[in-house]
Design a protein that fits this description.
Elements: H1 2-19, E1 28-32, H2 38-47, E2 52-55, H3 58-67, E3 73-76, H4 85-88, E4 92-98, H5 101-114, E5 118-123, H6 140-147, E6 153-159, H7 172-186, E7 193-199, H8 206-211, E8 216-219, H9 221-224
Parallel strand pairs: 1-2, 1-8, 2-3, 3-4, 4-5, 5-6, 6-7
The structure holds pyridoxal-5'-phosphate (PLP).
Residues 32, 34, 56, 77-78, 161, 202-204, 218-222 line the site of pyridoxal-5'-phosphate.
């Protein structure tokens, strides 16, 4: 079942790339395995070429990191509390959810202690939803200027969680706005700041996100099926 789901998502990614004149290798599929057992992850690793997994809780990421039978890339995609940074700074291949200077400072400090450079994305609340983490579009450039001299953090791009909508077309404008913001920042050629990664699109809207320039899509339900938060 997992393999069939994965293959179906792969096929849709390929189609979306074709429709928008992009090459398949411009887009990384992150399988969001939060709440799912290690056995599901290992099944996916065994049966497919999937090597990128996303988790939104520190404890769950580190547990799975330690136990999985084969090393894979772990993406931290959830809200990150400063007191937990130390547990993942050398385990996550990328932190997608940097949304404050304070968090960036703690990542810098903990990464320095472990002598690693931590790739990060700035989380932007492009749709300006009350309930969402992430900074506002107009705050991004200031934060980037404050982070650019941190030697143990490398800003790779932007991330957003689009609103939950019935029709994914409704999110096209938000994806386009995030892409435009990244182009705008890129055009300023700021030292130590890359804008090559755009992490946007989930099960409901990843095809639209790819059409609008996503380079990473985060798909959970579409691969692993619905989540049951009660048993995890
Ligand atoms: C859970 C989660 C996803 C995956 O959501 P699905 O709708 O199941 O694909 C993607 N991104 C983030 C940040 C998440 O927390």
């Amino acid at each position: 079942m997992l393999k069939e789901n994965y293959d179906e998502v792969e096929a849709k990614i390929l189609e979306a790339c074709k429709r928008s004149g992009r090459s398949r290798d411009e887009v990384t599929l992150i399988a969001v395995s939060k709440t799912k057992p290690l056995s599901d992850i290992e099944e996916l690793i065994s049966l497919t070429s999937c090597v990128n997994f996303g988790e939104n809780k520190v404890q769950e990421l580190t547990d799975k990191y330690e136990k999985v039978f084969k090393p894979v890339n772990w993406h931290m995609i959830g809200h990150l509390q400063t007191n937990k940074v130390k547990y993942i700074v050398d385990k996550a291949c990328m932190i997608h959810s940097v949304d404050s200077l304070n968090l960036a400072k703690v990542i810098e400090k903990e990464a320095a202690k472990k002598n690693v450079i931590c790739p990060v994305l700035i989380e932007v609340n492009v749709a300006e939803e009350e309930s969402k983490f992430g900074i506002k579009t107009w705050e991004v450039l200031d934060l980037i200027h404050e982070i650019k001299d941190f030697s143990h953090i490398q800003v790779k791009g932007l991330m957003t969680i689009a609103p939950f909508v019935d029709n994914p077309e409704e999110n096209r404008v938000h994806f386009r706005n995030l892409k435009n913001l990244s182009l705008d920042i890129k055009s300023k050629s700021i030292d130590n700041i890359d804008m090559n990664v755009l992490s946007m699109g989930m099960t409901n809207d990843y095809e639209v996100a790819i059409e609008e320039g996503a380079t990473m899509v985060r798909v959970g339900t579409g691969i692993f099926g619905a989540r049951n938060y009660n048993i995890s």
